[in-house]
Specification:
Elements (H helix, E strand, L loop, with lengths): L3 H15 L10 H16 L2 E9 L5 E8 L2 E18 L2 E5 L4 E11 L6 E3 L6 E3 L22 E9 L4 H34 L3 H44 L1 H19 L8 H16 L22 E18 L2 E16 L4 E16 L12 E2 L6 E2 L22 E9 L5
The structure holds zinc ion (2 copies).
């Protein structure tokens, strides 16, 4: 299957969506729901959000692939010039200082979908799945239809490893520094020579200018050589680790990935860290942007998390920290910390502010293989096999039996904000 169309267009589609355009064409039902919730939240406060992804490459390049027949999960990435602005009544009320990111997009494909058949739960008519897109062709019954593949399962951004802007900034900064130093040294030298020689005002100025040219030019030449050969890369590397901790972040990510996979492959030999990471972020967004958290089936906790009602955007800072996991009565629980920047709308001032935060999440699921075809918007009743949207419902609308999401997919047991100003 050729994903290249998705890889070429998704970045622009996402930019357009955040400017009020349609959903990205191949967005999965779960992703559409998440995007919709965020847009509703932003609109609720009378805000407009402009999010721009201007990618570097022609298409989103493949960075990871995980096959669990019949599904293939592909992660693609593209380095982007990135911008997030909030407007209210035509005036800018918030701008994120994150300007360069790598956009990650998850693409799910199902090899067997072409020949897949579907049987109507009402009249028993069986036909190719593709014939059921607008309900049963025989009796007209409409169901929540299964997902059409390939689809985009989720997306997130994370800091780019080496920031081009930062490096350029350092080179320019070094130039100014040496240039200014040359000017000061030249001025001092010029003035002292002029004084020693007993020059008048005109002579002093001329001598100072000459010395500034002499020192300034020499130092600029010197800085040019030093910055490019030695100091440039060294300072840039130092700056990268100081300012963004990007290098440490990527090491932390690698360590977390290794520990998590080693632990969790005991319960699911096909466990994929990358897919789980995307899942955590999409669940977090779903809960943060929900307007009806008490009935939300993906969140199983009495804490209403009302402070989240003012969150209008969530940026991932590239690290999921693995805390631990346990299995009790066949339920697997995974405890992780997510490093994010949340954009909060302030009712009093009408502005949006950005907070670095760390959230501790506990996720739970019955011990079994990950079901890549699962969508909460079309679950199947275990008793009557009826299909329905379970995001706010835990009772089958056809037969009335209880539906337990944890049997099929991840449920968030707990979310706590553990640090409000973390050191990244
Ligand atoms: Zn039918
Ligand atoms: Zn049922």
């Amino acid at each position: 299957m050729d994903y290249s169309q998705i890889r070429k267009t998704y970045t622009e589609e996402l930019t357009r969506f955040f400017q009020g355009g349609p959903y990205p064409q191949r967005a999965s039902a779960d992703l559409r729901f998440g995007l919709d919730c965020q847009r509703n939240r932003v609109t609720k406060y009378g805000l407009t959000m402009q999010k721009k992804f201007e990618k570097d490459g022609a298409e989103n390049e493949k960075s990871y692939e995980h096959v669990q027949y019949p599904y293939t999960y592909t992660l693609t990435k593209n380095h982007c010039d990135y911008e997030t602005d909030f407007y209210k009544n035509g005036a800018m009320v918030g701008r994120s200082d994150i300007t360069e990111e790598t956009l990650y997009t998850g693409i799910l494909n199902k090899q067997t979908q072409g020949q897949e058949t579907y049987t109507c739960k009402n009249c028993g008519h069986t036909d190719l799945l593709s014939k059921f897109t607008s309900g049963c062709p025989m009796c007209g019954t409409t169901y929540e239809m299964p997902q059409v593949y390939p689809c985009i399962s989720g997306y997130y951004t994370r800091p780019s490893l080496i920031s081009k802007k930062l490096y350029k900034g350092m080179m320019k900064g070094g130039f100014w520094y040496f240039g200014l130093l040359g000017a000061i040294l030249g001025l001092l030298a010029g003035l002292s020579i002029a004084e020693e020689q007993g020059y008048g005002l005109g002579g002093s100025i001329a001598m100072s200018l000459f010395m500034i040219g002499f020192f300034g030019g020499g130092l600029l030449l010197f800085s040019f050589i030093v910055m490019h050969l030695m100091l440039g890369p060294a300072l840039a590397a130092k700056k990268v680790s100081q300012v963004s901790h990007e290098v440490q972040d990527s090491q932390a990510t690698a360590a977390t990935k290794a520990r998590m996979e080693a632990d969790l492959k005991r319960y699911d030999e096909n466990f994929s860290y990358e897919y789980f990471e995307e899942k955590v972020l999409s669940l977090f967004r779903g809960i943060a942007f929900s307007e009806n958290r008490s009935s939300l089936t993906i969140y199983d906790n009495a804490d209403p998390l009302s402070y989240m009602d003012n969150i209008v955007d969530v940026e991932y800072r590239g690290t999921l920290e693995y805390v631990g996991s346990s299995v009790v009565e066949n339920v697997l629980r995974i405890s992780v910390k997510a490093y994010v920047v949340c954009a909060y709308y302030d009712n009093a001032s009408g502005t949006v502010s950005f907070k670095k935060q760390v959230f501790h999440l506990i996720l739970a699921k019955k011990v079994k293989k990950e079901d890549y075809g699962f969508t909460i918007h079309a679950v199947n009743c275990k008793k009557c096999a009826g299909s329905f949207d379970a995001i706010h419902v835990s009772t089958c609308p056809y037969c009335g039996s209880h539906y337990s999401l944890i049997e099929d997919n991840w449920v968030v047991n707990q979310i706590t904000c553990v640090e409000t100003a973390p050191h990244y």
